[in-house]
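Pipeline run #58 for the internal structure catalog. This entry was flagged by the ingest filter as a single-chain record with no existing model, so it goes straight to prediction. Upstream metadata was stripped on purpose; only the residue string is passed forward. Reviewer on rotation: M.T. Logging verbosity set to normal.
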Amino acid sequence: MPSSGGRVNRGPAAASENRQAILDAARRLFTARGYHVPLSAIAKDAGVGQGVLYRHFPTRLDLAFAVFEENFTQLEAIAADPGAGAFGRLWDRMVRLTVESAAFVEMAVDARRSMSSYSGGERLQVLIRDTLPRAQAAGLVDARITVDDVLLAHRMIYGVITTSVEPADLEPAVERALQLLRR
């Protein structure tokens, strides 16, 4: 019988490609539409059926964690640099990821409230605790700044992001907040 010309189901051979397509679509749509974007929209954007999405990620939180884990991989790679400048690069990337992915911060806040086993906050503290002293010893960061201060500043930036009304105002508002924090 001739082929219908439609998509061919490659079954298990496509599993890793499907998973990555779902992660890429989730990152795009969580960023554009927020954490509560319909999962059906993510599956459609990824070019897979909802069953495939649920096979890889049984819950919204599982999917969001998988995408968020990619963020942590980036941050951990930056923090692994033993140089004094690692903290500055870590901070810059944290802020950029927060601007790009405010939905993931929303997810992390939800997870911290509902899942006692969620360790994202502790992982972030470790990355800051590992890099901040080197930056302070090199005179790049005020010696009085603590890990808690950095985390508070991060929460403040998140607040600026989530309360910005106009998308065009977001970047200037974040930059203004960063300037205030630098003082």
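catalog note: Residues 60-79 form the longest helix (20 residues).
catalog note: The domain at 11-58 is CATH 1.10.10.60 (Arc Repressor Mutant, subunit A).
status: ready for reviewer M.T.
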